Amino acid sequence: MTSLSTHVLDTAHGRPAAGVKVRLWHDGSLLFSGATNDDGRCPELIADKPLTPGTYTLEFSIADYFRGLGIALADPPFLDLVAIEFGIAEAGGHYHVPLLVSPYGYSTYRGS
Description:
mainly beta; four-stranded antiparallel β-sheet
Protein backbone atom coordinates (compact mmCIF):
# COMPACT_ATOMS: atom_id res chain seq x y z
CA MET A 1 0.00 0.00 0.00
CA THR A 2 1.24 3.51 -0.81
CA SER A 3 1.39 5.89 2.15
CA LEU A 4 1.52 9.67 2.29
CA SER A 5 2.50 12.10 5.02
CA THR A 6 3.20 15.79 5.37
CA HIS A 7 4.87 18.06 7.92
CA VAL A 8 4.47 21.85 7.93
CA LEU A 9 7.25 23.89 9.52
CA ASP A 10 6.95 27.63 10.18
CA THR A 11 10.42 28.89 9.25
CA ALA A 12 9.58 32.45 10.31
CA HIS A 13 9.18 31.30 13.92
CA GLY A 14 11.33 28.15 13.91
CA ARG A 15 8.59 25.75 14.97
CA PRO A 16 5.97 23.32 13.66
CA ALA A 17 2.95 25.03 12.10
CA ALA A 18 -0.08 23.89 14.08
CA GLY A 19 -3.59 24.42 12.74
CA VAL A 20 -2.76 24.77 9.04
CA LYS A 21 -5.75 23.69 6.94
CA VAL A 22 -4.73 20.92 4.53
CA ARG A 23 -6.60 19.39 1.62
CA LEU A 24 -5.60 16.49 -0.63
CA TRP A 25 -6.98 16.27 -4.19
CA HIS A 26 -6.75 13.59 -6.89
CA ASP A 27 -8.46 13.75 -10.30
CA GLY A 28 -10.73 16.58 -9.13
CA SER A 29 -11.89 14.65 -6.07
CA LEU A 30 -11.27 15.82 -2.53
CA LEU A 31 -9.69 12.91 -0.64
CA PHE A 32 -8.95 14.69 2.64
CA SER A 33 -9.67 17.93 4.46
CA GLY A 34 -8.23 18.61 7.90
CA ALA A 35 -5.57 20.55 9.79
CA THR A 36 -2.08 19.99 11.14
CA ASN A 37 -1.66 18.99 14.76
CA ASP A 38 0.62 20.64 17.36
CA ASP A 39 3.64 19.00 15.72
CA GLY A 40 2.71 20.36 12.27
CA ARG A 41 1.72 16.90 11.05
CA CYS A 42 -1.51 15.51 9.68
CA PRO A 43 -1.66 11.84 10.73
CA GLU A 44 -5.24 11.40 9.44
CA LEU A 45 -4.17 12.37 5.91
CA ILE A 46 -4.68 9.00 4.25
CA ALA A 47 -6.37 6.83 6.83
CA ASP A 48 -8.34 4.18 4.91
CA LYS A 49 -7.61 5.83 1.53
CA PRO A 50 -5.55 3.74 -0.89
CA LEU A 51 -3.35 5.89 -3.13
CA THR A 52 -2.84 4.77 -6.70
CA PRO A 53 -0.27 6.05 -9.20
CA GLY A 54 -1.16 9.47 -10.56
CA THR A 55 -0.99 13.17 -9.85
CA TYR A 56 -2.09 14.56 -6.48
CA THR A 57 -2.31 18.07 -5.04
CA LEU A 58 -1.79 19.04 -1.42
CA GLU A 59 -3.21 22.48 -0.60
CA PHE A 60 -2.14 24.43 2.49
CA SER A 61 -4.02 27.53 3.71
CA ILE A 62 -0.97 29.58 4.61
CA ALA A 63 -2.42 33.11 4.85
CA ASP A 64 -5.10 31.88 7.28
CA TYR A 65 -2.38 30.31 9.42
CA PHE A 66 -0.25 33.45 9.65
CA ARG A 67 -3.28 35.70 10.18
CA GLY A 68 -4.27 33.40 13.03
CA LEU A 69 -0.91 34.19 14.64
CA GLY A 70 -1.72 37.91 14.44
CA ILE A 71 0.66 38.64 11.58
CA ALA A 72 -0.51 41.50 9.36
CA LEU A 73 -0.50 40.42 5.72
CA ALA A 74 -1.09 42.45 2.58
CA ASP A 75 -4.47 42.24 0.88
CA PRO A 76 -4.21 40.06 -1.08
CA PRO A 77 -1.41 38.22 0.72
CA PHE A 78 1.74 37.23 -1.15
CA LEU A 79 1.06 33.57 -0.27
CA ASP A 80 -2.53 32.59 0.36
CA LEU A 81 -2.99 28.98 -0.70
CA VAL A 82 0.15 26.93 -1.36
CA ALA A 83 -0.62 24.06 -3.72
CA ILE A 84 1.95 21.32 -4.24
CA GLU A 85 1.24 19.09 -7.20
CA PHE A 86 3.21 15.85 -7.03
CA GLY A 87 3.21 12.47 -8.69
CA ILE A 88 3.05 8.96 -7.33
CA ALA A 89 4.80 6.86 -9.97
CA GLU A 90 4.12 3.38 -8.65
CA ALA A 91 2.04 1.70 -6.00
CA GLY A 92 3.74 0.86 -2.75
CA GLY A 93 6.27 2.85 -0.82
CA HIS A 94 5.99 6.03 1.18
CA TYR A 95 5.71 9.61 -0.04
CA HIS A 96 6.49 12.38 2.45
CA VAL A 97 5.77 15.95 1.30
CA PRO A 98 7.04 18.47 3.86
CA LEU A 99 6.36 22.21 3.57
CA LEU A 100 8.70 24.80 5.04
CA VAL A 101 6.89 28.13 4.98
CA SER A 102 7.00 31.81 5.91
CA PRO A 103 4.60 34.60 4.87
CA TYR A 104 6.76 35.29 1.80
CA GLY A 105 8.27 31.99 0.71
CA TYR A 106 8.15 28.23 0.90
CA SER A 107 10.13 25.12 0.06
CA THR A 108 9.21 21.49 -0.37
CA TYR A 109 10.88 18.23 -1.33
CA ARG A 110 10.23 14.50 -1.26
CA GLY A 111 11.23 13.45 2.22
CA SER A 112 11.46 10.06 3.83
